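Fresh eyes needed here. I'd like your take on this protein's tokenised backbone:
***
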Amino acid sequence: MVDKPSLSVSQVLSWLRCRYEWYLNYEERLVRKDLKWAPALGSAVHAGIAAALLRKHELDKLGLPFDEYEILVTAVHDGVDGWAERTLTFIDQDVVDEELVQVTRDAVDQIVPQAAEIIRRTLQHIKVWEWRTLEDRRGQPMIEYHFEVPLRRWRCFQGYVDWVGVHEPTGHKWLIDWKVRSQFQPDDNEEISLQHAVYQYGLLRATRHFLDGTMTVQIADRVPQQPKLNKDGSMSRALIRTDWETYKAALLTAGLDPNDYLDMQEKLSTVEWVRISQHYRTVDEAQAVWKEVILPVAAEIRSKRKRIYRTLSPRVCRSCGYKDLCLAELWGEDADYIRDAMYRKREHREKDELVSTGEENANA
């Protein structure tokens, strides 16, 4: 008997984080009225990377050699331009606020070239020419890949995977997740990533591919800064977020000799643009996470006697979109007024781009 829709890692994490947050999100389907959709750099980067990987996969299937220009320039721009077109079409059709439309158009214009540069740097860093995309049993390349796994009394457990690739020099198969971030997280977070452990096991059941491990490619959310000229005509040697290529180009433009600034080449090599965090995980380890976390939580959520309670802590509450309502109820304030003034019901078919409930913070 199916009495629930599909289950996702986001819902599991919400339940584990705070059951009252889960209740307001998934049972009452509340969303803040003041949350507005905005184009995200991360979405543009994902679109551009996916387009590049799909193009390389096509070349691999045809037995054609890697074409760096076609992959790193043409395909990337096609993917990012496609994202921009979809974004602007959505805005034109679904947003009536003229000011928001103009702000979004300006943001898209800024994001497109920035995303393209970030993607090219990322694909070069991982040496994309050393990778091959894995296919599922139907021959579908596992790029922006959706999978489903049977789950008792749920329609299914479902997940979305950025990429499943084979590193040709080693033959190792990896589940790969792109994360565009302002600050990189520690490498050891990969070992305790609930999402990645569950996805690794879910892909085994859905595709019969067991992967050697999971990998988060953390990508800096900015492009290199331009160095500044000093008043005496020399170039500043301040350590800024830039790279040697950008710094060298600025030197040449200013008529300065790069050989006089070779100390900056070493200094700028310490600036991190891409960090690869990976963890090898056995099938027993991945299965244990499924059995010890997903199955018990799935049973708790579907139980008619489940207990809903708050998790009151700075770590949880600080980024929760329901904090105002929750605390008003807890302290006996006028919660009905806050509910009506600040929140609305989310429509079942409402576009995902228009809502944000704090789940992305858990998955970041």
